[in-house]
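ok posting inputs for the oxalic acid job
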Amino acid sequence: MEDVNVPFVEVHYVTIQKVGDIPIVKGDFKELPPQVQKWVAQMVQLCTPRGVYICDGSDEEAEMVTQKLVERGTLTKLTKYENNYICWTDPRDVARVESKTFIVTDDKYASVPHSREGANCVLGLWMSPEEMKVQLDDRLPGCMSGRMMYIIPFSMGPIGSPLSKIGVQVTDSNYVLLSMRVMTRVSSEIWKHLKHGEEFVKCLHSMGCPRPVERLVIKHWPCNPEKTLIVHFPDIRKVISYGSGYGGNSLLGKKCFALRIAGRIAYDEGWLAEHMLIMSITNPKGEEKFVAAAFPSACGKTNLAMLTPAIPGYTVRVVGDDIAWMRFDKQTGELRAINPEAGFFGVAPGTNMKTNPNAILTCLKNSIFTNVGETADGGFYWEGLEDETPPGTEITSWTGEKFILGEDKTKKSSHPNARFCCPARQCPIIHDRWEDPAGVPISAIIFGGRRPEGVPLVIESFDWKHGVFLASQLKSETTAAAEHTGKQVMHDPFAMRPFVGYNFGHYIQHWLDFEKDPNNKLPKIFHVNWFRLDENKKFLWPGFGDNIRVLDWIIRRTNGEDIAEVSPVGLLPKKDSINLQGLVIDWDKLMSIPKEYWVNDIQETLKWLDDQLGDDLPKDIRDQIEKQKERLSQLK
Ligand code: OXD
Ligand code: MN
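and the output
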């Protein structure tokens, strides 16, 4: 597929540099590698901003942009802390929009699987280049008129690491610029690392609100919800995002680049880009192991990654809370993982000094809070902070409504998908190897979801293929991270349903294929469920810091301890093999495998996978389903 064919634009280097007729208000265009100059010039000609601002990642730059946003009313300083700001968005722009997120390739089936006729494919949306061109031609020409175009050079992963990748985002949102500075490594150093002609991921973002503004701008948050489109061109490593300023829609290093585009690069190059946290656990003997864990959005990945162990003697350290890039080391066969991000963009509601003290401590400075409430004394507030905020405190909610804490329990301060955006390096338990260019060695891969019914606390896979099957059948209750409503249990294979940038069948096969290389030391694969309910809708497991007990069991299994027994759905902990000291747990209920539930579940899973993937569903997964059915038929 060809990239947009815009003729090369002349660049003038007089006293004021110009791209075409558009002045460069900051930075030196000559510093940009030629392939970046060419693309930026095309984007300038297409989007017609009033000026071009080449970012260098410096603190002075951040201060200047922040100041502007404060003056405009987009950001408000939270005076209780150092360099913390709050932002409220247009209430129509509050989450990722999966229904408007597309993958564009010449061949439809490079992007999406051969779903069965009549099945509504939820594993990616495809549009042809021709159709997408019509959509983009309707949106992009002049989309930045009257606004500044910021050129953001960024690295996913430590700058200069062989595992890292470089992107350049052009955007007309300075909120996005400030957030990208937290979430990625933004620096003019990047230009030096991009060799002549070397590939970089091209990221174009516009709020779709050119000046003079003809639309009503709400809360100083320009956006264009009716026309929002998030488009990926994996073949040419390009992302175009239009109309939304929120999170994964606009911070293009995150889901768009580090998962969808990088996933496709990883497929081509033989590695993995996954929706996973990376953490280490050190046991009382001082042995440290790293694990990677995938959970659907807003299932507590950030809390798990920064867990405060509820039992003594254990230490947890975090490498990343959302995305892992992993590859098998050619020499040692170990699976090595890096966190490509530089910050945490966590769901705020529910986070507090009990559930995740490390997250709270991370965001006491240099952070941006979006759609949370504000206390009268300049602090942040959200649902979950009740016990840490004095009753009687006046709160201004994200919709601007004032109320007194404790007076009216129906008042909500924050949007359920409100976020904190804070630098990872500030986390008190950040691992000292979190930026190790070689990555950290992964001993176990954990998958999990919110499963109120039927699914035990932890299951270990019988082997790699069975593990890939456990990941393929992952399901979870929906959350507020995207536009889904209601509490339904949805399939979310590998926790990647919204984030795969190519045919999901090929993705599953890619996972299966790692077994074929005898040099690869395959980590053990587990499935966990912290969310099982009893008949009174009470959680059967305390979760949070007590999850260390399960992690401990997992680590001991990676050491080969004989503490697991066979069940029809996988290996389960032998009774008393998980340390439950100090807890009152109904173990039998927590670990039971209700036959009827599982028989129905495997039928439904087969139907769903077959509908969604059709003939792209790998044969190994069909075999695993048959084996599971057979094992379940033996269950009493
Ligand atoms: C996220 C998500 O923001 O998964 O991390 O939605
Ligand atoms: Mn995520």
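notes: The chain has three domains: 22-54+97-269, 273-339+434-594, 344-425. The chain has 16 helices and 34 strands.
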